[in-house]
Write a structure and sequence with these properties.
Layout lengths: L1 E5 L3 H13 L3 E5 L6 H8 L3 E5 L4 H14 L5 E5 L4 H9 L4 E4 L4 H12 L4 E2 L4 H14 L18 H11 L4 H8 L3 H15 L4 H10 L6
Parallel strand pairs: 1-2, 1-3, 3-4, 4-5, 5-6
Length: about 220
């Protein structure tokens, strides 16, 4: 896998390069202005583009949007120290495949890279509520009913514990919060999540949440 990293934070960039190389990923690390990413993409045509979003978010989005216009199949993951709701919506709008907070750690980014490389999207768990809000807006625009529906748990598909974890996902809880809420270990939570994704035929938390809401499996 050939990955290009564009990151102005030297320490973070070097850390990513070292860790990804140790995972057998071919890395090209660059410190360039975000406005030059299209030229860089044409130079390497990487499997993945990991782009650090700096203080000038709008400039970054415009540069990515231009790149996506030229190369609509480009796989881009953005990383950020912090991000606002509006930023998430813009990131989804322009077709970025992944969003990872730097505070989430290397394992989260590595998981994002592998997920996106396999053709799927990956977004940090913190954006789940934002995605839910957008989903309901789309339902309204598509003239879906907004009346209250009776919640029906997918017991024919998931176990009682898996249903509980799915409900926590909809609330936007991360693995640690779910573990604390259900008095189980984070490893157990992760095992349950893996089973849920397989049973529901989804690839990540966001897809599981949207499916649960669409099917009326959870109250919100």
């Amino acid at each position: 896998m050939n990955t290009v990293i564009v990151e102005q934070d030297t320490v973070y960039r070097n850390l990513l390069s070292t860790n990804l190389t140790e995972q057998g990923i071919v890395v090209v690390s660059e410190d360039i202005p975000v406005t030059e990413i299209s030229c860089l993409y044409r130079k390497y045509f990487p499997n993945l583009f990991v782009l650090g979003i700096g203080n000038n978010f709008q400039q970054s989005i415009e540069s990515i949007e231009y790149l996506m216009y030229e190369y609509p199949f480009a796989k881009i993951i953005v990383t950020a120290n912090e991000i606002e709701d509006y930023h998430v919506k813009e990131i989804i709008r322009v077709g970025i495949k992944g969003l990872v907070l730097k505070s989430s750690g290397f394992d989260s980014l590595l998981h994002a890279i592998r997920t996106v490389d396999n053709g799927f999207n990956f977004f940090d768990p913190f954006v789940t509520n934002i995605v839910i809000q957008e989903f309901f807006k789309l339902r309204t625009l598509d003239d879906f009913t907004t009346s209250k529906r009776k919640v029906r748990e997918p017991r024919n598909i998931l176990t009682k514990r898996e249903c509980e974890i799915l409900e926590n996902l909809v609330l936007g809880s991360n693995n640690k919060k779910i573990a604390e809420s259900l008095t189980i270990s984070e490893k157990t939570v992760q095992n349950h999540l893996s089973n849920i994704f397989v049973k529901l035929k989804v690839n990540d938390r966001t897809q599981a949440v949207i499916l649960a809401i669409k099917e009326g499996w959870v109250a919100i």
